[in-house]
């Protein structure tokens, strides 16, 4: 009889009955899945990965792959404990002690540890690694172990609480091929450690929401007599997911598509952060991409292979978008071939409540990452206090920089590196540099890269989850102004440009107001005309901002004859304040807490030019609820109208 998943009693959110989500809410993506990059520490040392996945209580799987050198894909889990199997090998499992007499894995409430080994596939000194952690959770992931009987076994129970989308089985006590069942190849199976097309070796079959069956065939065997097996079960959510604040979101999809050797979009209903793709109708590699290592819109994407030990490679294969992913070339899109995939949603699903988890300001450090955030950065603006430039870049556009003070096209900067868990940038720029850094999160901030179509009323999808209150758009491959939308501007019948200090009176005309899912980029009616935001085949980047209670505030004010408090709903004041006059000429000026928001003169920089930091005016002061704006000649005089954006 099979040995079942270690947690027998399942709640709605947790096999163990304990979960980190708020009462009444579903688990967030970030509580059940993590991509975490780390550098090896070497022989005899202990490595700790803190990814906030509770493996100790809930159980789960850790998959590790070295990125910068050849090394096996290593999988270890809480059910098998101190044993490793390799997805690119038919061999049985090895004990951690095989990598050093005291080597072990630790499964923690906030991640995992690799202890006492400097093995190349796990923790070589200065080696670059990626880890993918899958936490056991209903409608996401489960682990089952069982013993083979040598004949058909049809009632191996699981706790997914839904029909699986994909099942991976491996014999652990001896050599045997990895067996993969996928909902879109059923009844055929695939081999994880090989490239063969789906075959009629039906080793895994009769899959339901409570059980699955196994048997033996010529090549693929899942029930050899007396053999020990582990099965990894991945769910497929189809508008029945139970994740996020409303316990109603999908986070994992297992699907298929037919290649066309051109570009095509695959709709998931969400933006992915991790994806595995395999040709099922012909031979092909098991490719794996994730947004931490880099999936670049209009550039090369870093991939690894589950079926071999190669280091990572890059090519322009796919891109992630707001509703799924796009296929960029024939690598996983050959004409008339069938492909299967498994995709996991980008998190988080809940709006932030702590501004320090989604925004940071840092002066340049002495080593990489040169700007520290303590979270993975999705967008950064870096500048020098001498005003030498305002460089803005995003994770989804890779090493490319734009400048808020110019109309230029994007330039590649090799130092703009994103694969850090706590900051960005891999090379120094000068000790006068600092960076403002954002993380994408619902209700707070989003980034969208898109291709223009030249239309007059074109809408683009976004994942902000609320109506954006401020939007910046710039052409990446063409010169042109930065379009700047702000929620108060339609009522003022004005448009602004982020790279200019002026006030613009061009009417919005037929502008389509943004919604919680889309924003308008087309025609002369929005942000400076088609060429700035929607030229046919033009490449664009859009940054979307919103008010997140207690975290950020997008607003406006009219200056009075004396100082006034701008209440942003904060409790400890603002760390970042951006102000722009809307009814006359004045710069986009930025204040931050690192350089000082104090009583008295405050240093400020201008996003729209290369002037050095100015320190001779007392434009704002600190206040616990937000900030105080003072009446200052030439900056904030009585009767002038302003927009602002502040972060706690």
Description:
- The structure is a single chain.
- The chain is an all-beta fold.
- It contains four helices and 49 strands.
- Strands 1-9-3-4-5-6 form a six-stranded antiparallel beta sheet. It has a six-stranded antiparallel beta sheet with strand order 18-26-20-21-22-23, with no helix packed on it.
Notable characteristics:
6-stranded antiparallel β-sheet; 648 residues; disordered N terminus; mainly beta
Could you write a compact summary of the structure shown?
The chain is mostly beta strands. Helices cover 2% and strands 36% of the residues.
Q: Tell me the number of helical segments per DSSP (H or I, 4 or more residues long).
A: 4
* Through-space gap between termini: 57 Å
**How large, in whole angstroms, is the Cα Rg?**
26 Å
- Largest sheet at a glance? 6 strands, antiparallel
| Uncertain ranges | 1-12, 15-21
Helix content: under 10%
Which structural class should the secondary elements be placed in? mainly beta
Q: Any idea what the shape is?
A: elongated
Strand arrangement, major sheet: 1-9-3-4-5-6
Oligomer: single chain
Q: Report the strand count.
A: 49
What's the structural blueprint in terms of helices and strands?
Layout: H1 29-32, E1 33-39, E2 46-50, H2 55-58, E3 60-66, E4 74-77, E5 83-86, E6 94-95, E7 104-108, E8 111-115, E9 128-135, E10 141-147, E11 153-157, E12 164-171, E13 179-182, E14 189-190, E15 204-205, E16 211-214, E17 228-235, E18 252-258, E19 264-267, E20 272-279, E21 287-290, E22 301-305, E23 313-315, E24 318-321, E25 324-327, E26 338-345, E27 359-363, E28 371-372, E29 379-384, E30 390-394, E31 400-403, E32 411-412, E33 423-424, E34 433-438, E35 445-451, E36 459-461, E37 470-475, E38 483-486, H3 489-492, E39 496-497, E40 518-520, H4 530-533, E41 539-545, E42 552-558, E43 564-567, E44 576-581, E45 589-592, E46 605-606, E47 620-623, E48 626-629, E49 641-647
Antiparallel strand pairs: 1-9, 2-8, 3-4, 3-9, 4-5, 5-6, 7-8, 10-17, 11-16, 12-13, 12-17, 13-14, 15-16, 18-26, 19-25, 20-21, 20-26, 21-22, 22-23, 24-25, 27-34, 28-33, 29-30, 29-34, 30-31, 31-32, 35-41, 36-40, 37-38, 37-41, 38-39, 42-49, 43-48, 44-45, 44-49, 45-46, 47-48
């Amino acid at each position: 009889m099979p040995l079942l998943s270690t947690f027998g009693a399942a709640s709605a959110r947790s096999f163990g009955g304990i979960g980190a989500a708020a009462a009444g809410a579903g688990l967030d993506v970030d509580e059940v899945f993590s991509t975490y990059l780390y550098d090896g520490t070497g022989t005899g040392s202990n490595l700790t990965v803190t990814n906030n996945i509770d493996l100790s209580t809930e159980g789960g799987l850790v998959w590790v792959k070295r990125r910068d050198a050849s090394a096996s894909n290593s999988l270890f889990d809480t059910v098998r404990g101190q044993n490793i199997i390799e997805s690119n090998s038919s061999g049985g499992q090895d004990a951690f002690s095989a990598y050093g007499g005291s080597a072990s894995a630790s499964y923690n409430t906030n991640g995992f540890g690799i202890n006492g080994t400097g093995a190349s596939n796990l923790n070589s000194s200065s080696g670059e690694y990626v880890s993918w952690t899958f936490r056991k959770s209903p409608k996401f992931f489960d682990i089952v172990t069982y013993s083979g009987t040598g004949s058909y076994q049809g009632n191996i129970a699981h706790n997914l609480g839904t029909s699986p989308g994909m099942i991976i089985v491996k014999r652990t006590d001896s050599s045997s091929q990895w067996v993969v069942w996928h909902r879109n190849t059923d009844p055929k199976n695939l081999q994880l450690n090989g490239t063969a097309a789906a075959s009629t070796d039906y080793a895994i079959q009769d899959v339901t929401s409570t059980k699955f069956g196994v048997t033996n065939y010529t090549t693929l065997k899942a029930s050899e007599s007396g053999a020990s097996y582990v099965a990894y079960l991945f769910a497929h959510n189809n508008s029945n997911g139970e994740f996020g604040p409303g316990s109603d979101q999908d986070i994992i999809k297992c699907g298929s598509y037919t290649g066309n050797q051109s570009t095509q979009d695959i709709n998931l209903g969400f933006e992915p952060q991790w994806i595995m793709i395999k040709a099922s109708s012909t031979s092909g590699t098991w490719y794996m991409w994730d947004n931490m290592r880099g999936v670049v819109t209009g550039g090369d994407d870093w991939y690894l292979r589950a079926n071999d030990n190669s280091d990572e490679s890059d090519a322009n294969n796919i891109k992630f978008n707001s509703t799924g992913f796009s296929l960029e070339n024939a690598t996983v899109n050959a004409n008339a071939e069938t492909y299967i995939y498994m995709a996991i949603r980008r998190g988080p699903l809940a709006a932030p409540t702590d501004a320090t988890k989604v925004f940071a300001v840092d002066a340049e450090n002495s080593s990489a990452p040169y700007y520290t955030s303590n979270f993975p950065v999705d967008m950064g603006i870096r500048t020098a206090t001498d005003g030498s430039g305002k460089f803005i870049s995003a994770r989804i556009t890779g090493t490319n920089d734009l400048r808020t003070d110019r109309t230029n096209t994007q330039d590649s900067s090799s130092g703009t590196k994103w694969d850090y868990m706590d900051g960005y940038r891999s090379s120094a720029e000068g000790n006068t540099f600092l960076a403002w850094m954002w993380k994408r999160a619902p209700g707070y901030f989003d980034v969208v890269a898109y291709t223009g179509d030249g239309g007059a009323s074109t809408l683009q999808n976004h994942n902000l989850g609320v109506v954006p209150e401020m939007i910046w758009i710039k052409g990446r491959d063409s010169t042109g102004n930065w379009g700047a939308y702000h929620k108060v501007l339609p009522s003022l019948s004005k448009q602004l440009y982020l790279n200019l200090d002026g006030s613009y009176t061009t009417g919005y005309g037929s502008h389509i107001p943004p919604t919680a899912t889309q924003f308008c980029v087309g025609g002369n009616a929005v942000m400076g005309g088609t060429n700035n935001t929607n030229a046919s085949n033009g490449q664009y980047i859009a940054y979307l901002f919103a008010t997140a209670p207690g975290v950020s505030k997008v607003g406006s004010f009219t200056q009075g004859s004396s100082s006034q408090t701008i209440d942003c709903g904060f409790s400890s004041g603002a760390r970042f304040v951006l102000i722009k006059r809307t009814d006359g000429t004045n710069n986009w000026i930025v204040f931050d807490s690192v350089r000082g928001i104090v009583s008295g003169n405050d240093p400020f920089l201008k996003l729209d030019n290369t002037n050095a930091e100015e320190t001779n005016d007392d434009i704002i002061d600190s206040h616990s609820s937000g900030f105080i704006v003072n009446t200052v000649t030439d900056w904030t005089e009585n009767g002038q109208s302003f927009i602002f954006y502040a972060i706690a």
